[in-house]
Amino acid sequence: MTEELLLTNFRKHIAITDAEFDMVLKKLIPKKIKRKQFFLHEDQVAKDVAFVISGCLRSYSIDENGFEHILQFAPSEWWMTDMYSFVSQQPGNLNIDALEDTEVLLLSRKNQLELFDHCPPLERYFRILTEKSLVSTRQRLINNLSLTALQRYQNFCTIYPTLIHTLAQKQIAAFIGVTPQFLSKLKNER
Question: Pairing between strand 29-33 and 38-40?
């Protein structure tokens, strides 16, 4: 099941042979992350990128007032890491933790770079994901500057349809930039 999920994800974006896919599988490390357990703390170097098999991860920063700013959720079939830290191998500024018991496949930066040399379709795959992430991040920034809270909530529902009913309201509120009380009021007015 795990392998099929990853292969299906690859084949949404690239053509990959069985031999190339076997090469990738040999570089992956399965890991279980318990609910509330950290995958990465700010100021750590992100050694791995995680492909979520089941469960959900979130990445966030905490401001000087202790307020969490959620950048991304990663449900099943999503990848997550602190991209700045992962690529630069410098300490990052994101926390990543599990919102529920989560199973992931880890790919180290070293192994990723080796695979890029020996499995060119994988380099294309990660380029496509990076481009989509860049576009999504840019659009989210524009949306946060120009859309109403209701419109941001509707965008959340579009991006993360599987999480609407499973995440705590405070998580969704932190993602769209409102208080949980305001989100509750907003949802009641709909």
Answer: unpaired
List the pLDDT tens digit at each of the 190 positions of the chain.
Answer: 688 999 999 999 999 999 999 999 999 999 999 999 999 999 999 999 999 999 999 999 999 998 889 999 999 999 999 999 999 999 999 999 999 999 999 999 999 999 999 999 999 999 999 999 999 999 999 999 999 999 999 999 999 998 988 999 999 999 999 999 999 888 887 6
CATH number of the domain located at residue range(s) 2-146 in this protein: 2.60.120.10
Beta bridge partner(s), residue 100: none
Task: Pick left, alpha or beta for residue 69 (phi over 0 → left; psi -120 to 50 → alpha; otherwise beta).
Answer: beta
CB 33 within 8 A of CB 98: yes
Residue spans per domain, the chain: 2-146, 148-190
